[in-house]
Amino acid sequence: MSSDDDDLMREFLLESRENLNQLDRDFVELEQNPRDPKLLGAIFRCVHTIKGTAGFLGLVKLESLTHTGESQLSRLRDGVLTLDSQLTSALLAMVDAVRRILASLEANGGEGSEDFGSIAEALSRIGAAPTRIEAHEGPPPPVQSAAPPALEPSPELAPAVVRTAQPENVTAVAKSSPECAPPERVALAPSVEEPMQMALPQAPAPQPAAPQPAAPQPARKPTEQLEGPPEGVAKGANAVSDTAIRVDVALLDRVMNLVGELVLARNQIMQYGQTSKDAGFISASQRLNLLTTELQAGVMKTRMQPIGNVWNRFPRIVRDLANVCGKKVTLELEGTETELDRTIIEAIKDPLTHAVRNAVDHGIETQERRLLAGKPAVGRVHLRAYHEGGQVNIEISDDGGGLAIEKIRARAVERGLVLPERAARMSEREVAHLIFAPGFSTAEQVTNVSGRGVGMDVVKTNIEKIGGTVDLSSRYGQGTTLKIKIPLTLAIIPALIVTSGGERFAIPQVNLHELVRLEGAQARRGIESLHGTDVYRLRGNLLPLVFLNRALRLPTADSAEDVANIVVLQADDRQFGLVVDGISDTEEIVVKPLGKELKSLNAFAGATIMGDGRVALILDVLGIAQRTNVVSQSRDRALLEKTRNQLAEEEKREALLLFRVGSSTRMAIPLSMVARLEEIAPGRVERAAGRDVVQYRGAILPLVMLGRELFREARPESDEPLPVIVYSEKGRSIGFVVDQIVDVVEEVVTVRSQASREGVLGSAVVQGRVTDLLDVHAVIRRFDSGFFDRRDAA
Q1: Is the pLDDT confidence value at 508 over 60?
Q2: Which residue, of 577, 602, 700, 786, has the fewest CB within 10 Å?
């Protein structure tokens, strides 16, 4: 092959792979809407394009196979055949065969030795195609008048047991997908009334095993006189194609690695800039910081892909599996546009496939059992994805029979996974999580679909490998929901830097809940030992503690008894406190994989290079929790279980930041509105446009002196650092200067009196004292009326 031929073949393989995935979705949708002319036309053009290009490239097997499928599609389009489950299965078998031919072409350059004659013959026999179909001048005749005689189904292609219902939202997703696009070298001239004709010469098509109908040839305008684009092709398509190019994934990864190195260099320069007095250097480093941040965001955007790229395979999977299991299942997709880094997309394909198959196979009951239980005959599987708290949440729900808790409990004891005494004490939630144990299955017999116990443990293991968590909730007779939380990206992440035993460590911010510092007598008496476990009473709840120095066998500082820095972390569904020597700051770090010598250590998830060039290990929060038995199936968790009354009360609680303004006014702001807490030296405050500002993280941060704004109290001159509460929204930030940060509390807030002045929502009793609630938006609007209307870099 010449270089041009190689390029054409690569383009053909790439385009065809995308088109086959689209065909899977379109055929499943067409099965539910067999008379949709636009959808049928799109499918026909897609198959015709593959056939035509295969002929041009001399791919005899591929051309012959797609020609057979195209002939049946032509009969469907002309109303001679009606699509049913049997024909859909046959056409999908053709798609799978085409996929295998393409895989062979990609692997060794040939079409392979597999014989596809049985697939083509099975397709040809469906409907007993007549040797000729007359072209109709008007609309196609009614289907019932031209219905073919009933024939026995082909033994090679058994008909599906039931038809799978498809929800409207899945149909909408399929319709919005682009139609089959040929390689640029193959010029096509499609018409609304007839199949597209190849403009380049084709190899003669081989004769199929059975007689094929001739495609109808209605009168039409010549190609050069077409007044507009063919049906289904949007205007301006050329303009769209001109703005998009294909980029090799390896090149994207290389650029991402270079950006990571640039971030490390930026961190080093910014750290040096904190001690420099050279105004020019400081200005240049701030500019570098802004440009690096923007470049990082841009490159990250190029790597982001919608989760719909993974979900697009599921309608076909659900349809085929439902037919095998003799069930009716409808699939609903919500949040298909939710974006993740491509590395995460690749990592979650198999776990999500396992979860969806499990929902159809184990979750949804048969039609008979559903009707007996008073449910609709058609089961429902719902996939939902959304962003929350810097993570992506994925929920796979079904309305099936739910988990049989007692059956799982008995099988776990039978398999020796838990002792009978322990099993009897386990809560329903703990029993439900036993399905994640390796090899666990409640299936009575092994089939080609399930029963081998290699499903849910794969889901949990693979999700946890990428820093995610898996949770499960189920109600017997009503259904099950699997909740998965995963990070947006694995390349560059925000992390908290801590020190312990003379070493620095990074903790991913997605695991961080809050920070607690104990000093003096509070540090010595606040930490208790209960049943051999160190705990701290945090707002009335017992928080188990892990001392990082002990866990990693690091030296302990002499002053450790006088100060306790507790990093409250979330591991699995449990919270625990990690006691460290010191807490530095949060910063974005570039994740580097560990060498093979350290991969077996479950306490570390990777490494990063700090601003001074030294390496810091990234802590694996779940690994440390498991290593220290904070999270363990065999551990008595009675100390961590909350009563129902506590849970109900906590749902009403709100986290508040307490602070003092002026001489004696006590105020509060919801902690959810606080981006950061800072201390700024008074000498750093400047005036710009008549306002107080400070240079902050490479940008200019406006400062609101709350004492002056609310109470007309001038802050006394002092060299003490200014406490600043940073609020961020729409890419902009603003700082509230207060007189003292008091505490962070959780309480049920009830406004006892209405606001007496602008900037105050009202008053409530917090910790037994009257506290004013700051009206953040009102204060900002008075200070800067256009703050919420602009979107600037912060």
Answers
A1: yes
A2: 786
